[in-house]
Amino acid sequence: MPLSTADFAALGDTPITILSTAFPNVYLRLDGFGVTTSTDSGSGTVNCQYGVGTHEKYLLRAQPEGLFSFESATFPNVYLRADGTGVTVTGPGGGTVNCQYGAGPYEKYKLRAQADGSFSFELATFPNVYLRLVAHGVTAFAGSGSGIVNCQFNANGGGHEKFLLNVA
Protein backbone atom coordinates (compact mmCIF):
# COMPACT_ATOMS: atom_id res chain seq x y z
CA MET A 1 0.00 0.00 0.00
CA PRO A 2 1.45 3.39 -0.95
CA LEU A 3 2.55 5.77 1.78
CA SER A 4 0.62 8.95 2.47
CA THR A 5 1.85 12.26 3.87
CA ALA A 6 0.58 11.15 7.29
CA ASP A 7 2.95 8.13 7.20
CA PHE A 8 6.14 10.15 6.66
CA ALA A 9 6.83 11.10 10.29
CA ALA A 10 6.75 7.47 11.46
CA LEU A 11 9.21 6.14 8.86
CA GLY A 12 12.45 6.99 10.66
CA ASP A 13 15.17 4.87 9.02
CA THR A 14 12.75 2.51 7.28
CA PRO A 15 13.75 2.30 3.59
CA ILE A 16 11.21 3.22 0.92
CA THR A 17 11.00 2.78 -2.84
CA ILE A 18 9.95 5.29 -5.51
CA LEU A 19 7.74 3.59 -8.12
CA SER A 20 6.71 5.21 -11.39
CA THR A 21 2.94 5.36 -11.93
CA ALA A 22 3.40 5.41 -15.72
CA PHE A 23 5.69 2.38 -16.13
CA PRO A 24 4.76 -0.88 -14.36
CA ASN A 25 7.40 -2.21 -11.93
CA VAL A 26 9.87 0.59 -12.81
CA TYR A 27 11.64 2.28 -9.90
CA LEU A 28 13.90 5.28 -9.46
CA ARG A 29 17.50 4.04 -9.25
CA LEU A 30 20.42 5.88 -7.59
CA ASP A 31 24.01 4.66 -8.00
CA GLY A 32 26.19 6.65 -5.62
CA PHE A 33 29.33 4.55 -6.03
CA GLY A 34 32.35 6.81 -5.51
CA VAL A 35 30.25 9.79 -4.36
CA THR A 36 32.19 10.73 -1.22
CA THR A 37 32.42 14.54 -1.41
CA SER A 38 30.10 17.33 -2.47
CA THR A 39 30.69 18.78 -5.95
CA ASP A 40 29.01 21.77 -7.60
CA SER A 41 27.53 19.68 -10.43
CA GLY A 42 26.84 16.49 -8.47
CA SER A 43 27.97 13.07 -9.64
CA GLY A 44 26.90 9.43 -9.68
CA THR A 45 24.01 8.09 -11.74
CA VAL A 46 20.25 8.34 -11.40
CA ASN A 47 18.10 6.38 -13.84
CA CYS A 48 15.44 3.65 -13.85
CA GLN A 49 15.36 -0.01 -12.86
CA TYR A 50 12.88 -2.79 -13.47
CA GLY A 51 12.18 -4.20 -10.03
CA VAL A 52 13.82 -3.41 -6.71
CA GLY A 53 17.43 -4.10 -5.82
CA THR A 54 19.83 -2.29 -3.49
CA HIS A 55 20.04 0.90 -5.59
CA GLU A 56 16.26 1.51 -5.49
CA LYS A 57 15.91 2.06 -1.74
CA TYR A 58 15.83 5.45 -0.03
CA LEU A 59 15.49 7.03 3.39
CA LEU A 60 13.00 9.89 3.39
CA ARG A 61 14.53 12.80 5.29
CA ALA A 62 12.37 15.69 6.52
CA GLN A 63 13.88 19.13 5.91
CA PRO A 64 12.84 22.58 7.19
CA GLU A 65 9.79 24.32 5.70
CA GLY A 66 7.96 21.08 4.87
CA LEU A 67 10.55 19.90 2.35
CA PHE A 68 11.99 16.39 1.95
CA SER A 69 15.22 14.83 0.71
CA PHE A 70 15.86 11.28 -0.49
CA GLU A 71 19.00 9.69 0.95
CA SER A 72 20.23 6.45 -0.60
CA ALA A 73 19.77 3.50 1.76
CA THR A 74 22.83 1.86 0.15
CA PHE A 75 25.17 4.87 -0.08
CA PRO A 76 25.11 6.77 3.25
CA ASN A 77 24.83 10.57 2.99
CA VAL A 78 24.30 10.39 -0.81
CA TYR A 79 21.14 12.19 -1.92
CA LEU A 80 18.94 12.49 -5.00
CA ARG A 81 19.97 15.76 -6.71
CA ALA A 82 18.00 17.69 -9.35
CA ASP A 83 19.20 20.83 -11.12
CA GLY A 84 16.37 22.41 -13.09
CA THR A 85 18.48 25.17 -14.65
CA GLY A 86 17.00 26.15 -18.01
CA VAL A 87 13.83 24.06 -17.62
CA THR A 88 11.23 26.71 -18.46
CA VAL A 89 8.92 25.07 -21.03
CA THR A 90 7.22 21.70 -21.36
CA GLY A 91 8.68 19.19 -23.80
CA PRO A 92 11.08 16.25 -23.54
CA GLY A 93 12.39 17.40 -20.19
CA GLY A 94 15.79 18.75 -19.28
CA GLY A 95 18.05 19.74 -16.45
CA THR A 96 20.32 17.32 -14.64
CA VAL A 97 19.39 14.62 -12.16
CA ASN A 98 22.21 12.81 -10.37
CA CYS A 99 23.63 12.39 -6.83
CA GLN A 100 25.14 14.68 -4.23
CA TYR A 101 27.07 14.01 -1.05
CA GLY A 102 25.00 15.75 1.62
CA ALA A 103 21.67 17.50 1.28
CA GLY A 104 22.01 21.05 -0.05
CA PRO A 105 19.48 23.19 -1.94
CA TYR A 106 19.30 20.92 -5.04
CA GLU A 107 18.47 17.89 -2.90
CA LYS A 108 15.20 19.19 -1.46
CA TYR A 109 11.68 18.62 -2.80
CA LYS A 110 8.09 19.64 -2.17
CA LEU A 111 6.09 16.41 -2.28
CA ARG A 112 2.83 17.29 -4.05
CA ALA A 113 0.12 14.76 -3.16
CA GLN A 114 -2.05 13.59 -6.07
CA ALA A 115 -5.65 12.34 -5.98
CA ASP A 116 -4.56 8.76 -6.83
CA GLY A 117 -2.27 8.48 -3.77
CA SER A 118 0.90 9.26 -5.72
CA PHE A 119 3.23 12.27 -5.42
CA SER A 120 4.90 14.67 -7.81
CA PHE A 121 8.30 15.96 -6.64
CA GLU A 122 8.67 19.71 -7.16
CA LEU A 123 12.26 20.93 -6.94
CA ALA A 124 12.49 23.32 -3.99
CA THR A 125 15.08 25.52 -5.71
CA PHE A 126 13.25 25.63 -9.07
CA PRO A 127 9.56 26.50 -8.64
CA ASN A 128 7.17 24.64 -10.95
CA VAL A 129 9.91 22.19 -12.08
CA TYR A 130 9.28 18.51 -11.33
CA LEU A 131 11.23 15.25 -11.30
CA ARG A 132 10.47 13.25 -14.48
CA LEU A 133 11.01 9.54 -15.25
CA VAL A 134 10.66 7.97 -18.71
CA ALA A 135 11.17 4.23 -19.04
CA HIS A 136 9.93 3.16 -22.48
CA GLY A 137 11.21 -0.37 -23.11
CA VAL A 138 12.38 -0.92 -19.52
CA THR A 139 10.88 -4.38 -19.01
CA ALA A 140 13.74 -6.36 -17.45
CA PHE A 141 16.39 -5.82 -14.80
CA ALA A 142 19.58 -4.18 -16.13
CA GLY A 143 22.65 -4.08 -13.88
CA SER A 144 23.45 -0.44 -14.64
CA GLY A 145 19.83 0.66 -14.97
CA SER A 146 18.31 2.36 -17.99
CA GLY A 147 15.67 4.87 -19.00
CA ILE A 148 15.71 8.63 -18.47
CA VAL A 149 15.35 10.70 -15.32
CA ASN A 150 15.35 14.47 -15.72
CA CYS A 151 13.13 17.49 -14.99
CA GLN A 152 9.90 18.83 -16.48
CA PHE A 153 8.29 22.27 -16.30
CA ASN A 154 4.67 22.80 -15.20
CA ALA A 155 4.06 19.07 -14.68
CA ASN A 156 2.42 18.67 -11.27
CA GLY A 157 0.50 15.40 -11.68
CA GLY A 158 1.85 14.76 -15.19
CA GLY A 159 2.08 11.20 -16.48
CA HIS A 160 5.86 10.91 -16.18
CA GLU A 161 6.00 13.00 -12.99
CA LYS A 162 4.01 10.86 -10.55
CA PHE A 163 5.46 8.34 -8.11
CA LEU A 164 4.19 5.96 -5.45
CA LEU A 165 6.19 5.81 -2.24
CA ASN A 166 6.19 2.37 -0.63
CA VAL A 167 7.99 0.73 2.29
CA ALA A 168 10.82 -1.31 0.74
TrEMBL record:
Gene Ontology biological process terms in this record: L-arabinose metabolic process
Protein origin, superkingdom: Bacteria
GO molecular function, one term: alpha-L-arabinofuranosidase activity
UniProt-recorded name of the protein: Uncharacterized protein
Native species: Micromonospora rosaria
